[in-house]
Amino acid sequence: MVKGKNKASNKINYSKTVSINNLSHFYGRNENKKQVLNNVNLSIQKSELVLLKGPSGCGKTTLLTLIGALRTCQSGNLTVLNNQLNGASRKTRQKLRRSIGMIFQGHNLLRCLTAEQNVQMGSDLIKGLTYLQRREIARNWLSAVGLEEHYKKLPSDLSGGQKQRVAIARALSANPKLLLADEPTSALDSVTGREIVTLLRKLAKEQRCSVFMVTHDPRISDMADRILNMEDGKIFSTHSELV
Amino acid sequence: MGFVVGCVVVYQILYSDVTDHLPEYATLLAMGYKLNSLFFVVAREGFLLALFGYLPAYFSGQILYSIIRQSTRLPIIMDADKTILIFILVLIMCMGSAGIAMRKLVDADPAEIF
User: Fold this and answer.
1) Least buried of A78, A106, A122, B55, by fewest C-beta within 10 Å?
2) Cβ of B114 and A94 within 8 Å?
3) Where in the sequence is the domain holding B61, given as residue range(s)?
């Protein structure tokens, strides 16, 4: 009976993109050991746009990097796209990252590549496509983010908002199932910031992709499906209840 | 001696290039690219350095040989054996330096770019 119950609870929930149970994370060793995440519990459903807010140093970025399979999970359970990340090998995490789109605060576009080539770096990760097909995908995504006239421009010739759009196109061009964004609107004015999040929301719904966004920007709060607050390594809902 | 100096110079070029582009390599790792494919980029860079360093050196060497031959009447010839041997040495020099510079790539931590 107990065995059957355990079996049922171990079943993978395919409607959840991310499932976190009692996740804790530490930096440093011995007396310098500092806990940054404290028994975090969280789940993100398919096509959901979740915002995570909180003061600097509360553990937001650490959580983002753990979900993005960029760090090894130390304690607790972390399942991303049905991949258990506890004790996952470097190869498993690298493969998983191909299904996760990432948008960085500083764009992180490759300086020597044009907008089209930067986006193509994302579509290059899709197997079985020819060069022309990958270029077509890159151009389609650049058109989708409104940059059809800027294919051949280098990042240095683009404005902050345009660079962020290229970064979004690059993240989406690999057909991700989960999109992680760290302060994607922090360097943008309010109009461009809202445009970017509207675009992200629209594209995410169309692609059935979940979006998890770390932000301090209050101007985009009304656009989220759910807002979470983080403090001292713990997650609270918008009404300050522990999740 | 020239071989050793060449190794040091090429290593310095590749090492500083990898260091300058470390955030970009880390971004590629975060996107899901394999570390091996980044190693391949550095190896290709080493190969191109060897090739494009060798070609002008070959032609200027030929011109120099010709000048010396005409002015001294000595039978100095850059034959195919020497040409191939020097190219192989240049290739070993550049690829060896690229191999050492690749160690820096392991420092590219994708978690640090967030």
Assistant:
1) B55
2) no
3) 2-113
